[in-house]
Each structure stands twice: as C-alpha cells, then as structure tokens.
Specification:
The chain contains six helices and 13 strands. It has 284 residues and is α+β, with helices and mostly antiparallel strands. It has one domain. Strands 2, 4, 5, 8, 9, 10 and 12 form a seven-stranded antiparallel beta sheet that branches. Strands 1-13-3-11-7-6 form a six-stranded antiparallel beta sheet. Strand 4 and strand 5 form a beta hairpin. The protein is globular and about 65 Å long. 39% of the residues are buried.
Length: 284
Amino acid sequence: MNKAPKDAEARRAIAPVIVYPNDTLPKPDLSMMRAARASATKVDEVIVPPREGGCFRADAGQFFRITSVEGPQVGDLNLWYAHDLNERFFSGKTRALHGTHVSSGDRLWSSLPYLRAMATIVEDTLDWYGMDAFGGSVHDVIGTRCDPYTGYLLSGVQYHHCCHSNLTRALAEETGLPLHACEFHVHDVLNVFMCTGFTRDTGQYFMKASPVRPGDYIEFFADIDLLGALSACPGGDCSATHTSDAAACYPLKVEIFEPDRALLRDWSPSPANGYDRTHGTRDA
C-alpha cells in the first residue's frame, strides 16, 4: 500500500544478527547420556490411541521414547515439572535458543521464572531429513497445537478431538483436577514428527506429509522429574487436514527406560534459573 523508499534495497540487504547466540548454553553430556541409555531397561509403556491423548511420567535421569507404530502419525507433546504444573515447556524460548525445529543434542526448556532444561533429545531417527526445498523440517516448536476454538472460528464446527482437547482430557484423567482447570495448564507444544515451515511469499505456517514411518522414534533424557502428555493428532501425518476425522490416524507409543544409576553418579537434575527475580526493585 505504500511506495518503497529509495533506499529500500539497502535496508533489506542489512545482514541479520542471531538474537540468542547459543554457544554459551550449558552443554548436555550426550556421551554420558548415551552410555547410561545403553544400560537402561524398560519400566513403563503408554499407547496413545488415534485422535486421543495420554499421560506418562519420567523421573529425572530416565529416558522416554516416542515411537510411530502402525502408520505415519504426528503427535503434540506437553511437558510439566512433575511436582508443579506452573513450570511447563516453553516452546517460544526453545525456538529462540535452538531454532524452529529441534533434533539430537537440543533441549526443551521450561517456562519463566524457572527457565531450565526439562529434557534433552538424545536420539532422532528422522535427523536425516534436515531442511527441504520448501523450508520444511521435522519436530517443530512453531505450531501452537490444533484446538477446537480455532476450528470453530474458521469453520463453525464443534470438534472435540483436537490436540488441545486431547491433552486437556488426558491431564484431567491423570491428575484428577477439573477439566476446565486443566485446560489452562495445556500449552504450546513440540510437534513430534510433524513436517512444517513457513511459506516464502506470505510467511504462513504450513504442514506437509510427515516423513515418519512405523519404527521411527525420538528419544529424550529427562533432566528433571516430568509429567508428559501426548496427543495423537487428528491430522494423522498432516498431509492434508486436521480438526476433523477425515485423515487416517494411528497410535503413538511412549516407553520409559531406567538406566543404571551408577552411570549417572556425576550428574544432577537441572537447577532452576539463577536470576535473583528482583527485576530492578532493589540491589541483588
């Protein structure tokens, strides 16, 4: 609507600056984690049905693996500190620190004022995918989760198996808290296995068929005691649609593994952030 100024191209040509250089982030000891994983035995399993949600728990030092079974399926993951639902996964800060999509070696960070590592990705069978020609990649921290409110806003439908609703029901069943109270604890997600990006021309969030196949998995090390909730998205592999029963959907499997604790003797759970929380009101 406005005419470009004479120096428009010069303004566009200014080089970008990384907002949060992450070379000073605390580095996960992946070699220690993988050695511990080699000793681990399976202690629990949860099968999340298609278009439903399910909860699981992983103690600090345990591993949890999310696996595609039966057919290509994406999942929406929420995480909370197991002892306080107010501390939860912070997708926006995770995105700012690691990028729009995460993979092996990246960490999932918790909300303010805690801002600590909740889980470290130790294995990802889809790490080969990288970034495709459309600007798409796998395991995004840019999508919010499909929800019935946006579905109603756009289509006027009452659909109850969006990931927001699935996660809400799962959390209510796990905790015994009222459904409407649980809804306020559901938060922006890690879109497990989902292939997404932004269009080059309009900057719109897009999805495309996930490259996930049965047997693919992403595995995490729990840096603190965790309560997790996972939704098997009604979009299936998200190749065409969600917020409906049109897509073919499949279960997702969550497995919990307990390592030999002797291999973690030099490790301790992530501490809460060290900022003094005075916010400039008094001397630290």
